[in-house]
Amino acid sequence: MTTSAEYLQSMFGLDGQTAVVIGGTGVLGGAFCEALGGAGAHVLVVGRTLKTDEATGNTVVDRINAGPGSAEFFKADSTSRADLEAIVAHLKEQGRECNVLINGAGVNSATPFFEIDDEEWERIVNINLRGVRLACQVFGKDMVERGTKGSIINIASLSGITALSRVFTYSATKAAVINLTQNLAREFAQYGIRVNALSPGFFPAEQNRKVLTPDRVESIRRHTPTSRVQGDDPRSPFGVPSELAGAILLMASSNAGSFLTGENIVVDGGFTAMTI
Ligand SMILES: NC(=O)c1ccc[n+]([C@@H]2O[C@H](COP(=O)([O-])OP(=O)(O)OC[C@H]3O[C@@H](n4cnc5c(N)ncnc54)[C@H](O)[C@@H]3O)[C@@H](O)[C@H]2O)c1
């Protein structure tokens, strides 16, 4: 007779596994790290070389180390192949291999369409799309060579499946991430590696701070059937980062998620279901 705790552990437990969360220093990335650490994984919280990233990353590390998992911060830029290879080498030195990779680095902008220049387009594409491709190559190759039946989770966005105003470049990169995810799911299935995407709806974070103007928040509210009490707001349309934990653990788990690949899980409080 198994207890419910044993059942959940067997389905979602990540004891003995290593997770690499690129952009783990972000608002959502930190929540992904805590979910994986809470399920028992060793988590590499990866952030750029910014001072604030390191401080935020270490806060996440401390929280995870106080629970069932373990964690460490690792400085790396997701757009640098050498940095990504350094993560793989670091894990190797520790006798670890990456079982779960989350590509969660992302940047946004709210530039009107006719004002988007090449510099902005290339900067956003470089981080949101090229960085995901690089990490899938570097970690995917390592998983294939070691025979690791891993899970890759690419963070897309609801803006990748429906045309959101004002975030043109961002939306285009996220649509491409969803497409790349499906393509890699097919390609990597022969190695036992699953590749899925997570598309969050609206969660206040650093990258969308400037986009969430009062009129836009009102519009999001009208399109979010689950708007509810949150802090001082009686009808907040926003998600809370921990509300992404369930989807992350399902995709990460080689047991509960064993037949799940090429999927894009949308967690948006019903935004995309709201028509008339
Ligand atoms: N917040 C939302 O509402 C929302 C909605 C949909 C999708 N997303 C996606 O979720 C992911 C996490 O974003 P967030 O909302 O937590 O934003 P955030 O700005 O809080 O975090 C993004 C993190 O990525 C890091 N980062 C940026 N460029 C990097 C690089 N080159 N190398 C390494 N790290 C880098 C940043 O330093 C930051 O810590 C992003 O891919 C974002 O596009 C967010």
Q: Structural class given helices, strands, pairing?
A: alpha/beta
Helix segment tally: 8
Q: Which strand-content bin applies to the residues?
A: 15-25%
What number of domains? 1
- The CATH superfamily label reads NAD(P)-binding Rossmann-like Domain
Strand order of the largest sheet: 3-2-1-4-5-6-9
Number of strands: 9
Distance between the termini: 48 Å
- Main sheet summary: 7 strands, parallel
Ligand inventory reads:
nicotinamide-adenine-dinucleotide
**Helix fraction by DSSP (H/I, runs of at least 4):** 40-55%
CATH architecture label name: 3-Layer(aba) Sandwich
- Average pLDDT over all residues: 95
Q: Under the CATH scheme, which class?
A: Alpha Beta
* H/E element sequence: HEHEHEHEHEHEHEEHE
The best one-word shape is globular
> Unreliable segments (pLDDT under 50, ≥5 consecutive)?
none
Rg over alpha carbons: 18 Å
What is the fold-level CATH name, i.e. the topology? Answer: Rossmann fold
How does the SSE layout of this entry go?
Blueprint: H1 4-12, E1 18-22, H2 27-38, E2 42-47, H3 51-65, E3 70-75, H4 81-93, E4 100-103, H5 118-146, E5 151-155, H6 168-188, E6 194-200, H7 214-222, E7 228-230, E8 233-236, H8 245-252, E9 264-267
Parallel strand pairs: 1-2, 1-4, 2-3, 4-5, 5-6, 6-9
Antiparallel strand pairs: 7-8
Bound molecules: nicotinamide-adenine-dinucleotide (NAD).
